[in-house]
Amino acid sequence: MRILFSGDVAWRIGRETLAYSLPILRRDYGPFDFVIINCENAAHGKGITDRIFDSFIGLGVDAMTSGNHIWDKPTAFSLLDEDMRIFRPANYSRTCPGRGHGIIERKGKKLGILNLEGQVFMPPIDSPFFCADELIDEMKSQYGENLPVFVDFHAEATSEKQAMVYYLDGRVSAVVGTHTHVQTADERIMPKGTAYISDAGMTGGHDGILGVSYDSVMPKFIEGLPCKFEGSESGAAFNGVIVEIDDSTGLSESITRIQLPVNELT
């Protein structure tokens, strides 16, 4: 099983970069059994709308994970409740819209998805570790111990992400970090067979500060004043990973980090 995952797709330029990059990645690295993206920054940097969701599906995206910004567009609440292809972090309250785990299927292959959010330097939320225990057991009791499971861990602290992969090593196929928008160079296969990277990075405009234009964010750092963030419109690039999984064991054989500049958009 081959999975292509895109880090946080941010702002309009991120959506355009994704649309431009997917045919190239399919040609050069594919075919892929599943394409997954993190969509929480897709609508002007915060949240997602129905229209944007539909556009991603039209690109051949199989599933979308998210994080703390998934709640920023209230119109997404019904989408989270009604469509099984979009996920919010599972360790929010069970009363929140949507779901944080599930099974996606394509051409007879099944993949478990688990979306978690960190606690360190993040809004108050339930333990992602205890939540992972419960939901991994639930999926595997229904679909078998060797079910491949892909985890998007949306967290700020690298230490918490590393703790999670050691906690889940051998129980899931991959633990891929999101949220910081800066791709890390620590991709590896853990001792018990779980693929890992601390952060897959961001698909969007990289000539700025975490996808935000330099001019719009600097007053916050220099003067401490409130400011309106605007997306960076240059330095377009796709950031993500390709994970190859042994179907017979549900463990990973390789993880490849992808950085694809898209000069045509900027």
Describe this structure in words.
With 266 residues, the chain is of the alpha/beta class. The protein has one domain: Metallo-dependent phosphatases (Purple Acid Phosphatase, chain A, domain 2). Helix content is 27%, strand content 27%. The chain contains 6 helices and 13 strands. Strands 1, 2, 3, 4, 11, 12 and 13 form a 7-stranded mixed beta sheet that branches. A 6-stranded mixed beta sheet has the order 5-6-7-8-10-9, covered by helices on one side. Strand 12 and strand 13 form a beta hairpin. The two termini are 34 Å apart.
Unreliable stretches, pLDDT < 50, 5 or more residues?
A: none
The top-level CATH class is Alpha Beta
Residues in β-strands, percent: 25-35%
Shape, please?
Answer: globular
Helix content estimate: 25-40%
- Rounded mean pLDDT is 96
Following the backbone from N to C, one meets helices and strands in this order, namely: EEHEHEHEEHEHEEEEHEE
- Rg value: 17 Å
List keywords for this structure.
6-stranded mixed β-sheet; globular; 266 residues; alpha/beta
Give the topology.
Blueprint (H helix, E strand, L loop, with lengths): L1 E5 L1 E2 L1 H19 L4 E5 L11 H9 L4 E3 L10 H7 L18 E6 L2 E9 L10 H16 L5 E6 L3 H11 L5 E5 L9 E2 L5 E3 L4 E4 L8 H9 L13 E11 L4 E11 L5
Parallel strand pairs: 1-3, 2-11, 3-4, 6-7, 7-8, 8-10
Antiparallel strand pairs: 1-12, 5-6, 9-10, 11-12, 12-13
